[in-house]
Structure formats: structure tokens, C-alpha cells
Amino acid sequence: MASLLIKNARIASEENDEFKEFKKIMLKYWDDNLNVVFTRKRDLQIADAILELFRRSEHIENFNKKHLYLLIREMTDCKTHYITKVVNVMKQHQKKMLNEYLEHGEFIEPNRKPFWQKPTQEDEGENPYLDNEYL
């Protein structure tokens, strides 16, 4: 993840429009799913610190792994091996998101349709958030 973070940060520093769009989609994904993927408070803090570095990537001058880990340690007060565990989990998600984005120009979460598509009757029957009693 750190090497991917470094690579992504370099692209961001070049003000690449495609990367900006992917970064926006990726941050939205993590904002919606951070509590689903990570349950421990420590892991949530580390993941949030990593996302904050993505948000501030235009303002970071030194994009080497050691420096990024130092920034995360300062933000979270966690040891490096905990950071590495969270980074590896995020890296798996990141690869899937990036491949999906590069192949299709968008990222759709598994088992979800894009928000602009109307749900079908099959989807409505399976949706636990809909209360069919009042429909």
C-alpha cells in the first residue's frame, strides 16, 4: 500500500484529472465503508490517517515510504507493524477499485448498483432497509 500510496501521490502532485476523479471515488468508498472493513478503534484511526494523507496529497512534498509511515505514526501514535496491517488490507481494496476504474471508468461496489439506477423488484424484495409493510 505504501508503494501504491507513493505512486498515487506522485500522480496527484502532477494534477492528473483522471487520478483526481479516482481519488474522489476512492475517498467516498472509504468514507462509506471504513467502519465495515475495520472494527478496532486503532485500525480505524490508522485508516483515517492514511485517507487524510490522500486528502492532503497536493500539500505533501516528500513521498517516500519512510516519511509517510512517520506521518501516520505521528497522527495515530501507533507502531509500524499495526500500520502495515491496515495498509495491507487497504491495499487489497485499492487494487480492486483501481482495476475496476481503469477497465470501466467507474467503481461500483460489489453487490450494489450505481446510485442513479432504479432498483428492480428483485432488489426491493431483498433490501433490508425497506419496510414493505408501509409500501
SSE layout:
Blueprint: H1 2-13, H2 17-37, H3 41-55, H4 65-76, H5 80-104, H6 121-126
Describe the structure.
By secondary structure, this protein is mostly helical. The chain has one domain (2-134). It is built from six helices and no strands. Helix 2 runs antiparallel to helix 3 (41-55), helix 3 packs across helix 4 and helix 3 crosses helix 5 (80-104). The chain is globular and about 45 Å long. The termini are far apart.
| Coarse shape | globular
Task: Indicate how many domains the architecture comprises.
Answer: 1
Query: Into which percentage range does the β-strand content fall?
Result: under 5%
Q: Average pLDDT, to the nearest integer?
A: 78
Round the Cα radius of gyration to an integer and report it: 17 Å
Proportion in helices: 55-70%
- The succession of helices and strands, N to C, reads HHHHHH
Instruction: Tell how many strands the DSSP assignment holds.
Output: 0
Low-confidence stretches: 127-135
Oligomer: single chain
Question: What structural class do helix, strand and pairing data support?
Answer: mainly alpha
Count, helices: 6
Largest sheet: none
- Beginning-to-end CA distance, first to last residue: 45 Å
Quick rundown:
This protein has 135 residues and is mainly alpha-helical. The protein has helices at residues 2-13, 17-37, 41-55, 65-76, 80-104, 121-126. The chain has one domain (2-134).
